[in-house]
Amino acid sequence: MKSFKKNIKMKITFISDSHGKHTKLTNLCGGDLIIHAGDISSMGYSDEIEDFFKWFSQLDYKYKILIAGNHDWGFQNDIPNIRRIINKYKNFVIYLQDQMVEIEKVKIYGTPWQPFFNNYAFNLPSNGSELEYVWNKIPEDVDILVTHVPPFGFLDRVIGNYEHLGCELLTKRIEIIKPKIHVF
Hints:
Helix content is 24%, strand content 24%. It has 184 residues and is of the alpha/beta class. The model has no long low-confidence stretch (mean pLDDT 93).
């Protein structure tokens, strides 16, 4: 249990990168809040996204929050269709894209953007002004920050690649806002 402010305790589960294999996550224990930090699908097809939302909405959590990831193309390229899915589940699931929501006095901000990486979704030029603008929109009073990309130098290497894949500009913003939790 994480204590955010006086007398506020929540049981939170963080998951990410399920890539369409969400039904194999059978050990989720339920609680107050579950947050998925992106890549809910393999390529972001609407049927994959709909399947995920149906599953996610039925989990034994009071609140369910997600952001898109770099594999979730539908959120970027098929916006009208994905909005229909989001609206269908809006009473059960909260989708954040450059937005903040307050849950029981805990402020949660989510954003899917990342520095250019393998021509995936939600790419912006690395260390560019567009990316800096996105990160500067993150409020300073956020308690939980949800991004898909890691900050530079923090769990940002993948097997077989020895370079850091995290975002330097995000690291700088985190040093300023100091969220209590950053999930990616």
